[in-house]
Every structure is written in C-alpha cells, then in structure tokens.
Amino acid sequence: MRVIQLGTTAYADSLFRAGELIAAARQGVAFTGAGISAESGIQTYRGQGGLWNTVDPKFASIDYFLSDPAGYWTNAKERGGRLLAARPNLAHEALAELERLGHLAGVVTQNVDGLHELAGTRRLVELHGNGRTVVCLDCGASEPRAGVQARLDREMPPRCRACGGGRLKPAVVFFGEQMPVRAVREAFDLAAACDLMLVVGSSLVVYPAAEVPLAAVEAGAPLIIVNAEPTPYDELAAVVIAGKAGEVLPELKRIAAAA
Ligand code: APR
Ligand code: ZN
C-alpha cells in the first residue's frame, strides 16, 4: 500500500500506476461516497467539515423522522436546496467517461444526490436511494423533490398530493431503515465480478455499504482508493491517492485513455 501526497514524484508515480490498472480493467467498478460530490458544493458527513461534526445523525434516522416530520423537513430544507442546485463535477464526468471507454462496468454509490446519473453514468447502483425524489409513506406515490421543496415555505411538513395528506419522505435510506434489497444484491454481484475496485470519496465506515469494496478485494480485484483522508481500507489497496476527486479523477482518466 502506498499513500502519496499531491505534487510529489511519488504522487505522479502512483497516478500512473493507478491509471495503468484502470486501463487494464474491462469490468471495473467505482464505489463512491460523499467526497466525490464535495466539489459540487455538497457537504460530506465525516472528516473535515463533515455534517455529523455539528449535526446529530439522529436527525437522519427513521424514528426521528416519524416522531417529527416537520422538524426533519425544517432541518433538511437548506441541504435539499443545495442538493437540487448541485451539478456533476469533473470526477463524476471522469467516471462516466471511463464507463464509455469500457473500463468501468458501473458505479455503486452511497450518495443520494443523483450527480452520477446527471454526469451520464449508465449502470448506476444507488445503495442509499435518491434524494431528488420524494415518496408518500401512506399511499406509495412519488413526486420530484423540487416540487416539494418549492412548497415548504407554506406547507410544513409537506403533504402528499396524490392521497390528500400522506406523510412525504425523501426516497433515501434513513438510519434504521432497510437497504434496497435489489440494489444491494446488484452491488455485490458487480463487486464479485469486477477486475478493479476504484473507491472515490468515502470514509468506508458505514455498513453494509463498506462491505462492497471488501467483496471485490476478496474476489481478487486490485483496490485503488482516492480520498482526502486515510481510510480503514488503505492497507488493502494497491494504490492510495490522497487528494481531491475533482483533481485526481480527470488525471486517472487521461492516463487510462492514453495507455
Ligand atoms: N475528494 C475526495 N475525498 C474527499 C473530498 C474530495 N474533494 N472531500 C472530502 N473527502 C473525503 C473525506 O475525507 C471523507 O473521508 O470523503 C470522505 C467522505 O466520507 P463520509 O462523509 O463519511 O461519506 P460516505 O463515506 O459517503 O458516508 C457513507 O454515511 O451518513 C451516512 O448515508 C450517509 O451515504 C452516507 C454514508
Ligand atoms: Zn400519498
């Protein structure tokens, strides 16, 4: 395992080493976390400036939501606005290009911001759902979050239009909720079959999501980690690049495409 800092010759060597591994991949999988969207203006949860450093994670639990939907939506309003305004950055675009070039079979993301889809990734597994959609807990109807966000000033908590009053919740997995079974199965199938696992912007501390890269390593795939801070999996990686996803990923794509 080699951890390198931006701007050193070791950094250039490791970029090249990682780029070569990507160039050789035909069934690679990218596993992403909040760090890949940091440069799109979306706050991460952990590490420097992380949301959980100042906000109690209980506000993202299903028990809290059910006990106080208005409290949840009041807290979530500003973050929801930033999520809807966010656009993919160069890292999201680099992963979509690596899929087009045939090096990635797909992206497994913990993110709910929808930026991989907007960047053009076609095979996308959203382990924690998608925050751009809202579902009704009482009738199952769904609607775009943008419409709900627009009426929060006059409707708190927002109510379902389809059934005339059901409780609306973002279509994301709250702490204490089941993960989407099909997405989890697809993620582990991709990991078991991949010939490269590229982790970008995740602290790798939330389970079962963090088991996906492990499954790839156990299946014999080389692991590359691109993250701003050390992770618990660094020892398992062929290459660890400490840096910003928006700077590193375009470089990796350039090296892989030129190989
Ligand atoms: N480029 C690369 N990495 C970055 C950047 C950046 N620009 N900015 C921050 N990071 C790193 C941080 O150092 C941190 O290690 O990204 C990582 C983000 O970790 P988390 O905030 O824990 O995000 P994630 O791993 O996706 O969390 C998993 O936890 O709270 C739940 O449901 C939530 O999906 C989330 C899950
Ligand atoms: Zn309803």
Report on this model:
The protein has 259 residues and is α/β, with parallel strands linked by helices. It folds into two domains: 164 residues, Rossmann fold, CATH 3.40.50.1220; 84 residues, SIR2/SIRT2 'Small Domain', CATH 3.30.1600. Helix content is 37%, strand content 18%. The strands form two sheets. Strands 1-10-9-8-2-3-4 form a seven-stranded parallel beta sheet, sandwiched between helices. It has a three-stranded antiparallel beta sheet with strand order 6-5-7. Strand 5 and strand 6 form a beta hairpin. Helix 1 crosses helix 9 and helix 7 runs parallel beside helix 8. The longest helix is centred in the N-terminal third of the chain and has 17 residues. Zinc ion binds next to loops.
What labels describe this entry?
18% strand; 3-stranded antiparallel β-sheet; binds adenosine-5-diphosphoribose; Rossmann fold; 7-stranded parallel β-sheet; 10 strands; elongated; 37% helix
Globally, the shape reads: elongated
- How many helices? The count is 9
Q: State the helicity in percent bands.
A: 25-40%
Corresponding CATH architecture of the largest domain: 3-Layer(aba) Sandwich
Poorly predicted runs of 5 or more residues:
none
- CATH-assigned fold name of the largest domain: Rossmann fold
* Number of DSSP E strands: 10
Q: Structural class of the secondary structure composition?
A: alpha/beta
Unique bound compounds: adenosine-5-diphosphoribose, zinc ion
